Amino acid sequence: MALRNPFRNAKVKETDDLGFGTRITGERDRLIAKDGSFNVERVGMKTWSPYQDLVEMTWWRFFGVVIAFFVMVNVLFAFILNGVGINCLNGVKQGTWLENFEQAWFFSVQTFTTVGYGSISPSCISTNFVAATIALVGLMSAALATGLLFVRFSKPTSQLVFSKNAIITPYQNGQSFQFRIANKRSSRLINLDVKLTMSWVEANEHGMKGRKFARLKLEREKVVMLPLNWNIVHPIDEESPFWERTPEDIKEMNVEVIVLIEAFDESFSQTIFANGSYCDEEFLYGVKWKPMYYPDPSGSGKTILDLSVIDEVLPTA
Amino acid sequence: MALRNPFRNAKVKETDDLGFGTRITGERDRLIAKDGSFNVERVGMKTWSPYQDLVEMTWWRFFGVVIAFFVMVNVLFAFILNGVGINCLNGVKQGTWLENFEQAWFFSVQTFTTVGYGSISPSCISTNFVAATIALVGLMSAALATGLLFVRFSKPTSQLVFSKNAIITPYQNGQSFQFRIANKRSSRLINLDVKLTMSWVEANEHGMKGRKFARLKLEREKVVMLPLNWNIVHPIDEESPFWERTPEDIKEMNVEVIVLIEAFDESFSQTIFANGSYCDEEFLYGVKWKPMYYPDPSGSGKTILDLSVIDEVLPTA
Amino acid sequence: MALRNPFRNAKVKETDDLGFGTRITGERDRLIAKDGSFNVERVGMKTWSPYQDLVEMTWWRFFGVVIAFFVMVNVLFAFILNGVGINCLNGVKQGTWLENFEQAWFFSVQTFTTVGYGSISPSCISTNFVAATIALVGLMSAALATGLLFVRFSKPTSQLVFSKNAIITPYQNGQSFQFRIANKRSSRLINLDVKLTMSWVEANEHGMKGRKFARLKLEREKVVMLPLNWNIVHPIDEESPFWERTPEDIKEMNVEVIVLIEAFDESFSQTIFANGSYCDEEFLYGVKWKPMYYPDPSGSGKTILDLSVIDEVLPTA
Amino acid sequence: MALRNPFRNAKVKETDDLGFGTRITGERDRLIAKDGSFNVERVGMKTWSPYQDLVEMTWWRFFGVVIAFFVMVNVLFAFILNGVGINCLNGVKQGTWLENFEQAWFFSVQTFTTVGYGSISPSCISTNFVAATIALVGLMSAALATGLLFVRFSKPTSQLVFSKNAIITPYQNGQSFQFRIANKRSSRLINLDVKLTMSWVEANEHGMKGRKFARLKLEREKVVMLPLNWNIVHPIDEESPFWERTPEDIKEMNVEVIVLIEAFDESFSQTIFANGSYCDEEFLYGVKWKPMYYPDPSGSGKTILDLSVIDEVLPTA
Fold first, then answer.
1. Residue A38, CA distances (Å) to B38, B128, B255, D183, D305 in order
2. What's the rounded Cα separation, in Å, for the pair D37 and D35?
């Protein structure tokens, strides 16, 4: 009897197409962090990808890296120039080692950036040769730095807003699980496609607990456009893992609903993906959504979409 | 009886896959503006995306922004140079503050653009340091400006032409709703896919009016290529919301037919989308299309496609 | 009787998903030129797209345009510099108008390309201001020119080779229509998809001739990869418009088989399309393909694919 | 009797959607090299694609090419400058031919890279004209070099790790063929799709040996995400070419299982493909996978994925 699992529902079709294992990890841990990233850490293999790091790091770090590189590479060249002979640079006011080094550094910068005032210029083969090298390295480095800058700048920023909570609310003759999304920007998102997977903890016949996964059926899996907000609705029928579950059950099952949204962003003409996840502590009961849009009172004929309302709910009378 | 809705047609399958709500907005307002944009305004959340703005603004505004930035950033640096000491710039003819400022600005520009004539050049550490900064900022700014310029220039321009009107015209044994499109350019559009959704206003059993949506069935939803023009034909059968509607009905129903076209543009190797919409006042009755193409009279063996004819119709005898 | 059409085959499913009209154009004209372009000319609307032109013109024309622009824009600036006062350029050896103009032009070039030797440099506000403008225009122009250059250079070149002829040859218990393609390069083409449409001329019951179109069924419509060559085989069954047609019939029907191939090019990570067309005069009868590949005789274990054989056929004994 | 083929299995559905011919190549040669490339060599047609070469060559070769080009093009211009008259370059210290040539080369480099110190500058029309040409060529060359550099740098690097071996191991009530993959990086791979094709050698009724191909059915062909590792499982049922084969049979059949994986890489927002292949000598029997992930012992709540374990197996008790 102890082994009887109150949460087994024969009608639920299990799946693992999220690629999370069924072996249980800490029961109360989310699989998907609130920012949509996986709650997974990789070890045992060098997995560094400079490009990806440089594209995904913060702007502060990025400029830090650029400036540090800019300073250091020219320091390096300044050393070389000092080595091959500072006297081979016209226009350098000979002085202490430091003064010479400073001027060599500035000359290197002027060459690296291809500014080349000429107030300092190479007068021997040696320095001419170093200068040619600096210019070439400068062009290449500028290509990487500016290319990365532009890729970062032109990366589609996440523009989908998710409601903070999911709600369990009446729908037609039964209950439903709902959350809603909207497009923050006026850019057009096209051919949106939503996949919902529920994950919960359940004991098998030996009473050993494991994670289960099931795809949640939706009232509508695709929309062509997203001009306003979109209520994503999972009707709770017999085949739903929510079927006949009380809020207490849901808490005990340690439910997490994982969301994957695919869409085509016309402004960036790229396919974009958005991840999200709702855990049982983010579910609300006995409420319904507060409408987000209304005709422009000024009578402009436009429809106003108020994004600040996306999290707001009203009690179901 | 007052509640009886003359426009209910049980055979029509409703849908809302356009993501427009059914709550009625001003009855006579279009959902999709003639330029294909949504008739929606977003409030309540900062939704600014500098990249998208800079890509989508007019050319005049874009160049305005570029020039303004170019002037102002160098003004800023000119102030700094004046601050750290104009006398640390070789070749500056000392004069009034304004004269110094002008020369500092021009020096800044020469460095920012990496021209670096050298007629003015930094002679102290301070100015050398500022100059290095200007050159670095210049390279970065140029990357953004030129990258944006190129993205704008290489953006696929809308090349699909829609006929100004839609027509309701005999087709096989019945009637049909038709409009036509053509490719303005000789670039190849491939795998075209058209979706038509009709929206109309209808009262429910309580006489309360709301928007309804239904997908319109088409004679052909996809074509592989678009060498000439394409007649998009919705045959009006029993399942069509047009079924047994008079022009008066259609006007009263406040019909809007929303078009979404997806295609692959080979020249830009990008997927492109085109939106359009036809409101009841843009429907024509008792007409048919004037042919748009004919064999080249000069006998070159080519087919001539006359795009200027796309809006022209002929009376149906 | 005169009206009976010898070419009608009730089993053939007609289609027009190529978007070519059925209205007959010159009977003996191809719809698709041998290079895959449409045999169509657009009139009646400005359809110019500078980007597309610049990307698709020949390399000679492209460099011609670049050089012409480079020369002319600097000529323009040289005029302006002369206007505002050549004496405001340090280092100019005053001389005849032409000599001044030459030096102004060279100064403009040095600024436009941001070389800025400084042997000539602006000494008044006016010329400094013009110089700043030249440098800005130079940066922008360079962005377009170099961006276009790179887009042209990195454009996937057509790498699919089609056999010059199509053959009608025994296949299983019947006949088949075949041609073959191969990948010229070692780059990987993935998920190839082929569509074949046959177009022919046929008289309707009133003896009026028109173009007909039918999709040809294939032994295989998709392959996952294309390591060697691919024989594209249309088995001629009862539903084929080739069914029971003699070579004479086919000539009289003015047959054209139009090919559209879609694939994903991994090296360029782009979807590519290739168009082709075979007219009746390009059909061969009573032949079969000469094999294109064989194990490396040197015993390296590699398979040798001999592209020079792609057009070669052998008589069917 | 001699002709009876011990390996014929009527239930196996053959296919050739890999595009490898059935004509037998060296029996013991792989069709797909371990790095995923085809074991095919192309002859008989010029198939050179400079862009692809420059993108796919090693970094060492790439920089070699860039430097060689940089040196040689400036050598060329140095010759020209010497030709038109070294005395037309201000600042050149006339000397031996070699000394002049050196200075001409450095001047050319300074112009090519648009550094333009001005310590040497053109003083005649002839040299001014050459200098203008150098600057233009320099801008264009820099565009190609830096563009290629960035494309190479931003190319998605193969991030999928395959297990070294495939295993044949119990699964449900029968046996299965398995291998596993994981994502080396934390970047998100989305909508993974796996295709498995088995190739083996079999004699036909005349005892003539040929290659056969069959698609292998999988327990799951797609996963939405790949947060951990993915076991790709082919259950060996009656329709499988592995059905009732002993390890000896498999060796004799010269089995090769060819893998094609398609996925969308969100960081690079590109579709990526990965190829792999397992030959019979890479199969292991009587083993099962060692688990790759476990809850973080430090109790961070994260799941640890240990990529170093991917090749490790445990004996099946």
1. 35, 47, 46, 12, 12
2. 6
Q: What is the pLDDT of residues D49-70, one digit of tens each?
A: 788 889 889 999 999 999 999 9
Residues with Cβ within 8 Å of residue A72, at least 6 apart in sequence: none
| CB < 8 Å from B in window 112-131 of D | 114, 116-118
The verdict on D95 touching A (C-beta cutoff 8 Å) is no
Integer-rounded Cα Rg, in Å, for chain D is 30
Question: Across the 317 residues of chain B, what is the mean pLDDT of every consecutive 10-residue run?
Answer: 59 72 60 75 76 89 95 96 90 90 94 92 92 94 89 80 93 92 84 91 77 89 86 93 91 90 84 88 93 82 86 89
CATH 2.60.40.1400 is held by the domain B14-39+157-315: yes
CATH of domain B50-154: 1.10.287.70
Distance of alpha carbon B49 from alpha carbon A184, whole angstroms: 10
Residue type, D107: F
**What residues of chain D lie within 8 A of the CB of C146, using their CB?**
139-140, 142-143, 147
Q: Where are chain D's structural domains? A: 14-39+157-315, 50-154
- The CA distance from A263 to B74, in Å, is 42
CB contact (8 A) between residue D113 and residue A114: yes
Q: Contact partners of A by the rule of 3+ C-beta pairs under 8 A?
A: B, C, D
B185 CB neighbour count, 10 Å cutoff:
19
Q: Does the CB of D158 have a partner CB in chain C at under 8 Å? A: no
Cα distances (angstroms) measured from residue D21 to each of C114, C235, D13: 57, 19, 16
Q: Which residues of D touch A271 (CB under 8 A)?
A: 264, 269
Residues C233 and D293: their CA atoms lie apart, in Å, by 49
Q: Are D125 and D242 in contact (CB under 8 A)?
A: no
Place of tokens 């400094």: C128
- What is the spatial distance between Cα A85 and Cα A131, in angstroms, rounded to a whole number? 13
Q: Quick check: C56 and B267 CB within 8 A?
A: yes
- What is the distance between the alpha carbons of residues C157 and C276, in angstroms, rounded to a whole number? 15
Which ipTM score applies to this complex?
0.79
Does residue B190 belong to the interface with chain A, where contact is any CB pair within 8 Å?
Answer: no
Are A41 and D102 within 8 A, CB to CB?
A: no
| Residues making up chain B, counted from first to last | 317
What residues contact C88, with CB distance under 8 A and at least 6 apart?
C122, C123, C124, C126, C127
Q: Vertex C264, ends A262 and B269: CA angle to 5°? A: 75
The partner residues of C275 in beta bridges, in order of sequence, read C260
pLDDT tens-digit series, residues A265-286: 887 778 888 888 899 999 999 9
Q: Which of residues 11-30 of A touch B (CB under 8 A)?
A: none
Angle between helices D97-112 and D59-85 in degrees, nearest 10: 120
Contact between B291 and C136 using a beta-carbon 8 Å cutoff: no
Across the A/B interface, how many CB contacts are shorter than 8 Å?
Answer: 178
Place of tokens 């090296």: C267
DSSP symbol at C32: B
In B113-232, alpha helices (H): 125-154
**Helix (H, G, I), strand (E, B), or coil: what is residue A281?**
helix
Contacts of B109 in chain C (CB under 8 A): 128, 131-132, 135
**Chain C residue closest in CA terms to B304:** C41
Look at the block and give the residue holding tokens 């999290």. A311
The residue of A14, A24, A47 whose CB has the most chain D CBs within 10 angstroms, and thus the best one to mutate to test that interface, is: A47
Is residue C137 less than 8 Å (CB to CB) from chain D?
A: no
C262 Cβ contact partners less than 8 Å away, ≥ 6 residues apart: B190, B191, C192, C193, C195, C271, C272, C273
Burial of residue C297, with CB atoms counted within 10 A of its CB: 0-12 exposed, 13-18 middle, 19 or more buried: exposed
Q: Is the Cβ pair D117, B114 closer than 8 Å?
A: no
